[in-house]
Amino acid sequence: MIDRNYGLVEKWEKKESGVLHEETLLMRACKAGAYGHKIQYESCEIYQAHFTYLCGRPNVDLYRKRPDLFIGKLLICLSPEWEDFIRAQPVLDSILLRRLMKPMCKASSKTLHALPTGCRLYLFDEDAFRVHPYGHGAVYSSFEAFAKHGSGAVVRYGDKIISSASSHLTFENEVELDVTTDAEYRGKGLADHCVAAMINDCAKRGLIVHWDAKNTPSMNMALSHGFVLQQEYAVYILKL
Fold this sequence. Notes:
Strand order of the largest sheet: 6-7-8-9-10
Radius of gyration: 18 Å
Shape: globular
Number of strands: 12
CATH architecture of the largest domain: 3-Layer(aba) Sandwich
CATH class of the largest domain: Alpha Beta
Number of domains: 2
Largest sheet: 5 strands, mixed
CATH topology of the largest domain: Aminopeptidase
């Protein structure tokens, strides 16, 4: 999940390692040249795909020459060597907690309450794609590409889209879920309706859905729809 729905972030307060043991869909797409940018430098590989994934062994020369690759980025370590190096930096500002859910290809298991009066649920159509609500669908080249490879749903109140769940990207037959609700309409179950509609559509079409939870509310929503927690991991932020 891309970070748009909830502003709340949670700090990593565990003593153990926060190394990520699984390659996320964003990283896999980046490795294949389908998303983001890859930097190869002697003993390390860096994948910039919304997050910055650090693989291999740290390179001090690269760190000194290219601070733009590290400072102010959301750094995820895929090796203990990188984690030790990042944690030792005096400009380490914060360590955040994230939860990677196990990818799923089945219908939502959540029982939903009725939508509030005046709200209507729709699968992502060309009109929704055209306005890219909350940035959703913007990675796809056209609505035809989105309709063929992606999925999503929106809740409208009148003419306004007030909640949306959408695939951020598609790689092979897998999609990364992104969900957002207008701040003034949160707490009404709108996101659950969008998520359920998208997950159900993906299950019918054989698309595997990925969910990367930013915080506890996001994780709890994922669990309520049938996802299973795969791993907790750390995100590092360096600031000058």
